[in-house]
Design brief:
Layout (H helix, E strand, L loop, with lengths): L10 E2 L2 E2 L1 E9 L5 H9 L17 E7 L2 E7 L9 H16 L2 E7 L5 H13 L4 E6 L6 H12 L5 E4 L8 H10 L18 H15 L5 H4 L1 E10 L8 E10 L2 H8 L4 H18 L2 E10 L7 H7 L3
Parallel strand pairs: 3-5, 3-6, 6-7, 7-8, 10-11
Antiparallel strand pairs: 1-2, 4-5, 9-10
Helix pairs in contact: 6-9
The protein binds guanosine-5'-triphosphate and magnesium ion.
Length: 312
């Protein structure tokens, strides 16, 4: 860096760096979290087929040579249903305006006139550069992809990229497009980090992902997972590190608790067993998971608690 640099230009290994935060906005289930994982090349955000899987902003980081892209995965936007989703919406609008740019993610297979148009207007108001993505093109043939792109161009801001977050098609081109929008600036995170999420949160989210995959209707929305303890033990022999994870699955009613525990504990065991491979990969260790379920009445309506949970 020389004294004549304008602004806060910095160098990394002698190079001038660029960096920026890009917020992902889109309706629930559009595939925002899947896309963040595809771009950063690591699972930093959980995914499910239930709407409103993402509850708080999750940052995913991709660093390449002299450029660092920080993606801010946000909860899906739609008309609020309750106090929790209302807070989530307000948070989304603030988050987009606070970023250097926005990535507007549309579900190419399930387009909704009203919802997508409303969101497009909201994003334009944030006054930041926007790139639009038509996602899930693996589900469309060429002709329907072309039609989806044409329809999207009618109302969506910025350049439009067709992608499949699931197969990775179009993702390299999108990364190039996003990198090109980054303003000069110092790296915001260590280059080797894919996210700044605390380990406890990543662990809790991987468990919640498996609980979401096994529940329906209102129940997925009533589940929160808290990790009480993570303890790494290095055995004297070389049998490998064991990590003991103690986690608590919150629900709102006794009947919900009955469902998540299941007959003879079958459901909660299945959730734990399904979460374990992801946890072992994340923790690079054998994992012993102790999972309990607790009724925490109306936790989604408790403002103080939602604050502490970082929701909204
Ligand atoms: N076929 C296909 N499915 C996808 C693609 N991207 C995401 N999905 C699926 O769409 C569903 C929703 O994906 P998420 O990434 O959780 O969507 P989201 O936009 O983050 O959803 P919220 O967090 O609820 O706002 C999941 O079942 C994904 O597997 C894609 O490119 N193709
Ligand atoms: Mg999500």
């Amino acid at each position: 860096m020389t004294l004549h640099d304008p602004g806060n230009l910095q160098s990394f290994d002698g190079m001038q760096t660029r960096s920026g935060m890009i917020a992902l906005a889109g309706r629930p289930n559009a595939g925002k979290s899947t896309l963040v994982n595809a771009i950063v090349g690591e699972k930093v955000a959980i995914v499910s087929d239930k709407p409103q899987t993402t509850r708080r902003a999750v940052r995913g980081v991709l660093t390449r040579n002299d450029a660092q892209l920080v993606l801010v995965d946000l909860p899906g936007s739609q008309r609020p249903r309750d106090a929790m989703t209302e807070r989530m919406q307000k948070g989304v609008i603030r988050a987009v305006a606070d970023c250097d740019g926005a990535l507007f993610v549309l579900n190419g297979q399930q387009r909704s006139g009203g919802g997508d148009h409303y969101l497009a207007e909201l994003i334009k108001q944030a006054n930041v550069p926007v790139i639009t993505v038509v996602n899930k093109i693996d589900l469309l043939d060429k002709q329907r992809t072309a039609q989806a792109l044409l329809d999207t161009a009618e109302f969506a801001p910025g350049e439009i990229y067709p992608v499949s977050a699931r197969t990775g098609e179009g993702v390299p081109e999108l990364i190039e497009g996003l990198m090109a929008t980054l303003p000069p600036g110092p790296f915001l995170f260590p280059p080797e980090e894919a996210t700044d999420e605390p380990l406890e949160v990543r662990v809790a989210e991987l468990i919640r992902e498996q609980a979401l995959a096994r529940t329906r209707d209102e129940l997925p929305h009533a589940i929160e997972v808290r990790v009480d303890e993570i303890e790494r033990v290095e055995p004297a022999d070389d049998s490998g590190t064991i990590t003991y994870v103690n986690a608590n699955l919150w629900v709102e009613t006794e009947s919900q608790k009955g469902i998540v525990i299941g007959k003879g504990g079958r459901m909660i065991k299945a959730i734990g067993a399904a979460a374990r491979p992801g946890l072992e990969k994340l923790l690079d260790s054998h994992v012993h998971l102790e999972l309990r379920a607790t009724v925490r009445k109306s936790w989604r309506r408790d403002d103080g608690l939602l604050d502490r949970l970082g929701i909204g």
